Amino acid sequence: MNVASQFASVRWSGREDRIEYVHLAPERHDRPLLVFLHEGLGSVAMWKDFPRALCEAAGCRGLVLSRWGYGLSSPRALHERWPVDFMHHQARAFLPAFFEAIDLDTTKDRPWFYGHSDGGSIALIHAAAQPDRVGGLVVAAPHIFVEDLTVASIEKAKDGYVTTDLRSKLARYHADPDSAFWGWNDVWLDPDFRHWDIRALLPQIRCPVLAIQGYDDEYGTMAQVDGIAQAVPGAELLKLDDCGHAPHRDQPAQLMQGVAGFMRRHLTNKTPEFTGASF
């Protein structure tokens, strides 16, 4: 993204972490803010240029962060295991504390979220917990319950981390790749995690929602986004052909067009000066 990372000291749940983040197009102070929440192995750097490109297409500001344990943020302590409800903690405790640490008043500047995979799940939980502090949601390949397909693919990822060069590839995007990988992998393969399910929370969401899923996603099926559509009134779906778990890499043009159009439709009436980019 060619933007230098900043760091915030975030106190949450009895701990204090150094969190990496970047602002995009802050000069668009009168435009909506889009917060990017990465996947289970993501980081600020791993998004590459996608957040900047999407902010340009949608005509908005951006805020990209590496969650605790990822990127240049504080790593997970050696042998520390994430709890089964780690995404609830991230959504309900970490995000409000992070916004406070960077002086973002979400009562006055209600952010939108682009969440990918685990980041999408965290965005959904956060919007259910803070319905008056979220402007809108775009969730790509989110999880709302645990599928056998997901667990099987995460087991394959574990084998790949041990037997291939996956660790060295992740080291390009994380100061401590073991922190990122094993934090994510261990909790998803915990037998107790099979019972993780956020479907009961979804009716509490009050903002516009766009849920995106690829037909070839190895980590989830259409049941995930169909479940969101059933639970959240007015939720829109974008289903993509020839697309796996990362729509921003597999179908970037269709994705950006769909997201920018969705944001324009829901923001034009509320923000007359918002026009976004044309296609």
CATH superfamily: Alpha/Beta hydrolase fold, catalytic domain
- Fill in the CATH topology: Rossmann fold
Give the DSSP E fraction (strand runs of 2 or more residues). 15-25%
Instruction: Tell me about the largest β-sheet.
Output: 8 strands, mixed
Class by alpha and beta content: alpha/beta
Uncertain runs: 271-279
Number of strands: 8
GO molecular function, one term: hydrolase activity
Keywords: Hydrolase
Organism: Caldimonas mangrovi
Protein name: Alpha/beta hydrolase
Descriptive account of the structure:
Keywords: Hydrolase. This is Alpha/beta hydrolase. GO terms for molecular function: hydrolase activity. This protein is of the alpha/beta class and 279 residues long. It has one domain: Rossmann fold, CATH 3.40.50. The protein is built from nine helices and eight strands. It has helices spanning 50-58, 86-101, 118-129, 148-163, 166-170, 177-188, 223-231, 247-250, 252-267; strands at 6-12, 15-24, 33-37, 61-66, 112-116, 136-140, 209-214, 236-240. It has an eight-stranded mixed beta sheet, sandwiched between helices. α2 (86-101) packs across α3 (118-129). The longest helix is centred in the middle third of the chain and has 16 residues, at 86-101. The chain is globular.
